[in-house]
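Cross-check.
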Amino acid sequence: MSEIVIIDSGQLALSLRLPELGMPEILSFGAEPVEADPLFEIERSSRVNGMDIAVPSNVLLPTGGMGFFGWPAIAGHRGGRDFVAQFGGWTVIRDGNQTVLKAVDSVARLGIAITLTAHDSGLISMATALSNLGEADYQLDRCMAATFLAPAGDVQVMSFTGIWGREFQTRRELLGNGTWIQESRRGRTSHDRFPMLFIESETQIFGVTLGFSGNHQMVIDRTDDGQRLVHLGELFEPGEIILAPGESYHSPIAYAGADSQDFHAFVRDELTQWPGGKMSPRPVTLNTWEGNYFDHQMDSLKAQATAAAELGIERFVLDDGWFGKRDNDTTSLGDWDIDARKYPDGLKPLVDHVTGLGMQFGIWFEPEMVNPVSELYKAHPDWALTIEGRPVLESRTQLVLDLTRPEVSDYLFGKIDAVLSNHAVSYIKWDMNRDLTHAAGRDGKAKTAAQTRAVYGLMDRIRAAHPNVEIESCASGGGRIDYGALKRTHRVWTSDCTDALERLEIQRGASVFVPPEILGSHISASPNHQTGRRHTIAFRALVAIAYHLGVELNPLELTDEERDELKVYIETYKRLRDLFHAPGASFRMEPLDGRYVWGAASAEKIVVIVAQGPQMVGEQPAPLRLPDHVTQFGGQWRIKTVLPAGPQFIRISEGQKALLSGAVTFALSSAGLSGLPLPMLTPESALLLELEPIKGGKTHG
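Predicted model, tokenized:
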């Protein structure tokens, strides 16, 4: 009987049969593993004009060319030969929760190793390594990291699209008979094609994501029997991956999970490497960008820091404009020396002032880019990624530095290291503000894949030299949010758009795969700098408060009334952040008639945030039915706190007033069955409800 290999995370199980020749056959992928059975040995016959020997179509990483007519997950050649791969002689190596499947193609002289891991969080991950065992170069055109199996029948895919300032817009579509493909060629995760999907059928729901920040492919291919193979992997430029004899290609890691909570748990427990081994409470951050832009004046910045500390802010981040002769975004990227015009005594007086107030100090870098108007480019124009004879294409007046060259990476490390070594810096905002185009090295060959890995290498080097410094991944906002970047960073800037109305959808989408404490969300000025909309402090604060809260304005420009109100929300965040960011506590609900609902829950406290985006169409809002995993705490509860004190309701009944004042106690189960009859909010307003259990009552069951 064939060998059966089971990868079981407790939430998902992948069951494989290893053939004598060919790729591992997927027997099942779902909640339950299979057991060895004679049924799995029965060959499946095809139509009369099909292959005489049955060829399984539901396999890991199908290679094509030997009776498999679907989309090949592995493709390449050796000077036009060895274009067909057929692996055999499978061996299984187990080490704890990790399983490695190895095989060889003795004809094409290739070796393969597929690493499968069952994670404690419930995720299953997969990665592929392909080795050239021959004596001549092998051009690898495609090598997916992973394949997962989706059931037959009606299957819906949820993907994410967007643009700058409107990231993580969810899209749902029903899969047809053809092949579904999403590809990104931007050289970064992108704003429009995130490598994240949720697959939903009548019998199964699961999500997949690729942990990689460069070009990617996600393909869903229909098999002969109506099921679907979901492939994830890196997208290569032509001729980008050529393996010399003895060389190997190692794919990124792809992940599959049953639900958002499992993905969140993986990010928290395994992926994110915190200084000291444990996440500290996420500090309230003041970022100086929208409050100052390039206008850096020492006295004003010190005064802003003092005002920030008085508001309860815990981290001060000096954004773009502190280096070179950086008075606008057309100059000085690459010249990472402190601007003596703005800082005649260096940065130390500002850093000392900030840390003396008890705050952490952070600073902005964009290491991967260079302005043509810079001392660095003047000295080393050959350090930029370009193709000889082609136009030098700028984006945001920037070019991309070739980090694959050791001298470039060493230069950048030296400049960043000097700032971190000579100042009490706790945090880097690491930005990347342009896509990669015709990215080639001096030899004219594509460098996108190597560039992505070189960025990782520089990040890893900085982390090793300064292990107590946290890094935020920013790429024109949310352009580099993926599990490859998150392995090396501690926060992402979710979007450059700080408009609270836009953030409702952006943050809802991003939180499918990323836990709230990782997603930066700031209270910015009104009118908003990106959209011109005007919103109350209450709306701006409540939309941001459940995530990693920050402030994006000049605190000296606030009125006394605004300062007092902002301080209330900062204090509320500090009081509730342990709950907002607790493992398994957060929840979010699908928007209903323009109403967005999210929050966090424990047996001791439930926090519900309700935000009305567009105006409701219904005559009355539907009662707010809390999710099952919130109501499972049971018992009698009441509303203890409402923020703001005077929410913007269109109309409110006496009974609703009693409910919100805490005069009404109710069974938590009823809040799930019939729901909370809340008043209708005016458009673009919000409220926060704190629910507490009635002491002495039943709180479980």
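The two ends are 47 Å apart (CA to CA). The longest strand covers residues 138-150. Passed to J.P. for a second look.
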